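Here's what a typical entry looks like (DUF1272 domain-containing protein):
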Amino acid sequence: MLQLRPNCECCGKDLPAASTDARICSFECTFCSHCAERVLKGACPNCGGELVARPRRPAGKLERFPASTELVLKPAGCAEPAA
């Protein structure tokens, strides 16, 4: 089951479970759309995997299967990938 992490690892932006702005890789590294598209160019800086829109859990399931509250943040943020 997806953790639905609560923030962007690069900039710290809040990404609630219902957010359409969240992007994830296959390891569930989580980023906002701005960082994923403009800074990271669609590639996870941790594993190199593709960043895609994070699925949203139906509201009725969040009570039984809540989103993660563990914040993950890169202290130095994310740099643009080398050209």
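The radius of gyration is 12 Å.

More examples are in the samples folder.
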